[in-house]
Structures are given as structure tokens and as C-alpha cells.
Design goal:
By secondary structure, the chain is an alpha/beta fold. It folds into three domains: 31 residues; 205 residues, P-loop containing nucleotide triphosphate hydrolases (Rossmann fold); 161 residues, Ribosomal Protein S5, domain 2. A nine-stranded mixed sheet has the order 8-7-9-10-6-11-12-13-14, sandwiched between helices. Strand 1 and strand 2 form a beta hairpin. Helix 7 packs across helix 8 and helix 8 packs across helix 10. The termini are far apart. One of its GO terms (cellular component) is cytosol. Plays a role in repairing double-strand DNA breaks, probably involving stabilizing or processing branched DNA or blocked replication forks. Belongs to the RecA family. RadA subfamily. InterPro entries: AAA+_ATPase, DNA_repair_RadA, P-loop_NTPase, RecA_ATP-bd, Ribosomal_Su5_D2-typ_SF, Ribsml_uS5_D2-typ_fold_subgr, Rubredoxin_2.
Length: 453
């Protein structure tokens, strides 16, 4: 008989090969492929006929269980979750380092504990004293909030048996290790073992589970992709360190919608929810200034007014500058070309153009094209757009204004905030919209002069 060929297997993902390689061909990890001996012959598993309630039934005979949401006390977080926490649900919260994940979950734990429910907060990254200092600063000192600083999975499960919490928070899943799996904490095998064990315990006890997840340099969740499939809800915590505004959005939600966005603000006393962020992205100037225009952006189901500012300066440099902040540079370049070719703004290519948003918000949807075009045209002609005017619409290369999603919702939000003049797809073309905005600015300027004299 021929001698069986040795098999080499990856200790992280289980990938196998007939010869040794330095890098796994599946998970791309270095130094994880070791010899595992000859492959065992595959056998067909013995069939087991289920009995009782485990037998397959027609779908119409299956009882529909009503899954109730329990509010956490933070309205913006409940909005993203679909109404609150569900018994046995596993929720993964990811975000950049320092964005405020631990602060948000500590506030959630304190709010839930203040209602009389027992909460266990397991910190695997910070000591108990460090978490206690943050809780004292943010006012999260509640008798029903239990704190533990552990990195061993077995010890964490022991705390769960001893405390018997109604909510479990683990910060974070990449820093907890299991003795049943090889490798260092954070490696794919460890993350898979820790997450699957915690989720299994949460399902058996009907215990809501909140997990903190790290992200890689490209913004994806660290660890195996299986982690996102195991949990019920995946939330992403977004924000810029230079601004205090934070957004929580659901990328996956088995118990609610995935198009809701929660808005928060980081303060010295912790994190505070912002139920109505309408005024965060608008300037405070009472007099009309050239180069500004308001658009209505859509964050999930929420319509937010955002002010776009532009500055156009003549330059002698052979290559004029194009500096943008909060908007897509390629779309700004396209809008400049359309304005010069279709809207009659000649020689705009000989000017430095600066475009920015107010409040640090980022506009990635094409609905902001029309507001950017009007702001640039206002800066070129040095004529201010009136405060009561708002614009939203996508601009095509032919100079046409195309309709955008949720146009009625955008218009209703703009009118609620006092914007009585709207420029959208009804304007027809970008040239007509620019001229209409300029005529409105002339009328407003004439009224201001009449009032002054």
C-alpha cells in the first residue's frame, strides 16, 4: 500500500495542504501552517431522526414568537436597535480607537441598571479603577451595575454564573482569550471561540449581550468574518476626533431596520444624545454671505439640513488649487466643469476653489450637487443666497437636475425649519437653478437696502 501523504493544516482557520507553506492560503496568516499527519478517511455521519418538538412541521403550524424590545433609556441608541434590547440578542459595536465606544456602552449599562435590572460590565482592556473613574465623571455610578476586569473566558463565565445579570457587556471581544483554543487573544481562532461561547450562553439564558469590536486600518471589523454572521446586530460607531459629533448606524439588524441613525455628542461629562441635530450643521451668521447654500442630507431615515460653503479666489498659479472638506473631490471637479460649460461661469478654471461643509459632516450622496453648484456660483458672482433658500438635487453632465430619493421628506424637513424657497428637480437645469438663486439674492439684497434706508 502507498504511504499516505502528510497533511499540513492551519491552526487559525483549518485550511489544509499537502505541503508546507509559510503563509496560509485562506486566512493569509504567517507561521500558522503545521504538520497534522495523514488525513483521516471521511465517514458518513449516522442519521438521527428527531422526535417531539424538533420534528419538521409545515411553516403555517409554527408558532410565531413575539420578540419584545426593552428600552435602554437612550432614545438614539434604541432608535438604531429598533426599539431597544431583545432577550438573547448579541449586539456587536465597532468603531475607531478613541471614538467613544466604551463611554457609550458604559452609559447604556448605567441607564439599564438604573431601572432595577442587574448589569455586568466586563472590561478586558482597562482596569476596574480606570472604568470607575470614567463612571464617576459621567455619573454612571449605580448599585445594580457590576464591574469586572477579566481577560480569561472561563473567569468571565464564572462572573456570569455568580452575578446572574440581565445584561452583559464585554469590552472587548478581541482581548478575551479561551484556554480551549490556541493562539494569542485577537487571533481569528480565539475570536471565533470567545464569540461563539458568549453568544451560546446568551441564547441559553435569554441574556442580551453587548460586544465591543476593534477595527483594522481599512475600517473593517477585526477578526474572522464569521463574527459578523454569529451576532444578531452589527452597529458601527462613527465620528471624527476633531469634532464632538458621533453617529451610530446599524449595518445588520435581525430585530429592526438598518436605515436608522443615532446622533450623539461627546462632552466633558460623557456622551449625550442629540434628538434634533438640525442646527449643528448650519452657521450662526444672521446676515447673508456669498458662497453659502443649504442642502438637506439624508442620514438613514433622518433628514438633516447641512450648509455648504464655497470660496473662489483668482490665482496666477499654473495649477489652480481645489481644496474640499466634507464632500467628494471628484464630484466637485465634475460640478465645476458643468458650471463652466452649461451654466455660463467662464474662466472658473483660473481660480482657486475651496468647498467645505459646516460642522464636520460628510456629504457622500449626489443630492448635495445642486447646493454645491449654487454655493460656487454665489462665490464667483459675490452675491449672497437668501437664508430662506435650500437646494437639493443631482446634477448630470448634461446640466440637468435629476430627482433624488426621499424628495418629499427632504422638502418637508426644509419647510419645517423655515426654508420657504426650495430649488430641486423642478428647476429643470443647473443654469436655470443658478439664475433663479441669483435673482432671489438680488431681491433679498434690495429688501435689506430698503430696510436700512
Amino acid at each position: 500500500m502507498a504511504r499516505p501523504a502528510p497533511t499540513f493544516r492551519c491552526s487559525e482557520c483549518g485550511w489544509s495542504t499537502i505541503k508546507w507553506v509559510g503563509r496560509c492560503g485562506e486566512c493569509q496568516q504567517w507561521g500558522t501552517v503545521t504538520e497534522a499527519g495523514a488525513a483521516a478517511p471521511s465517514r458518513m455521519p449516522t442519521a438521527i431522526i428527531p422526535a417531539g418538538d424538533r420534528r419538521a412541521r409545515p411553516i403555517a403550524e409554527v408558532e410565531a414568537e413575539h420578540t419584545a424590545h426593552r428600552a435602554t433609556g437612550i432614545g438614539e441608541f434604541d432608535r438604531v436597535l429598533g426599539g431597544g434590547l431583545v432577550a438573547g440578542a448579541a449586539i456587536l459595536l465597532s468603531g475607531e480607537p478613541g471614538v467613544g465606544k466604551s463611554t457609550l456602552l458604559l452609559e447604556v449599562a448605567a441607564r439599564v441598571a438604573s431601572t432595577g435590572r442587574r448589569v455586568l460590565y466586563v472590561s478586558a482592556e482597562e482596569s476596574a479603577a480606570q472604568v470607575r473613574l470614567r463612571a464617576g465623571r459621567t455619573g454612571a455610578l449605580t448599585p445594580e451595575l457590576y464591574l469586572a476586569s477579566e481577560t480569561d473566558l472561563a473567569t468571565v463565565l464564572g462572573h456570569v454564573d455568580e452575578v446572574s445579570p440581565d445584561l452583559l457587556v464585554v469590552d472587548s471581544v478581541q482581548t478575551v482569550a479561551s484556554s480551549l483554543s490556541e493562539g494569542l487573544p485577537g487571533q481569528p481562532s480565539q475570536v471565533r471561540e470567545v464569540a461563539s461561547t458568549l453568544i451560546r450562553v446568551a441564547k441559553e439564558r435569554q441574556l442580551p449581550l453587548l460586544l465591543v469590536g476593534h477595527v483594522t486600518k481599512d475600517g473593517t471589523i477585526a477578526g474572522p468574518r464569521l463574527l459578523e454572521h454569529l451576532v444578531d446586530v452589527v452597529c458601527q460607531f462613527e465620528g471624527d476626533r476633531q469634532t464632538s459629533l458621533r453617529f451610530v448606524r446599524a449595518l445588520k439588524n435581525r430585530f429592526g431596520p438598518t436605515d436608522e441613525v443615532g446622533c450623539f455628542e461627546m462632552t466633558g461629562d460623557g456622551i449625550a444624545e442629540v434628538p434634533d441635530p438640525s442646527g449643528l450643521f448650519l452657521s450662526r451668521s444672521r446676515t447673508a454671505v456669498s458662497g453659502t447654500c443649504v442642502t438637506v442630507a439624508l442620514e438613514g431615515r433622518r433628514a438633516l439640513p447641512v450648509e455648504v460653503q464655497a470660496l473662489v479666489v483668482e490665482t496666477k498659479a499654473p495649477q489652480p488649487r481645489r481644496v474640499v472638506n466634507g464632500v467628494d473631490p471628484s464630484r466637485v471637479a465634475m460640478i465645476l466643469a458643468v458650471l463652466e460649460r452649461r451654466a455660463g461661469l467662464r474662466r472658473i478654471g483660473e481660480h482657486d476653489v475651496y468647498v467645505s461643509t459646516v460642522g464636520g459632516v460628510r456629504l457622500i450622496e449626489p443630492a448635495a450637487d445642486l447646493a454645491i453648484a449654487i454655493a460656487i456660483a454665489s462665490a464667483v458672482r459675490d452675491r449672497a443666497v437668501p437664508h430662506e433658500l435650500a437646494a437639493f438635487g443631482e446634477i448630470s453632465l448634461a446640466g440637468e437636475i435629476r430627482p433624488v430619493t426621499a424628495a418629499k421628506q427632504r422638502g418637508a424637513e426644509a419647510r419645517r425649519l423655515g426654508y420657504t424657497r426650495l430649488l430641486d428637480v423642478d428647476a429643470g437645469s443647473v443654469h436655470a437653478a443658478v439664475e433663479q438663486a441669483m435673482r432671489a439674492s438680488s431681491t433679498t439684497r434690495e429688501r435689506e437696502l430698503d430696510a436700512a434706508f
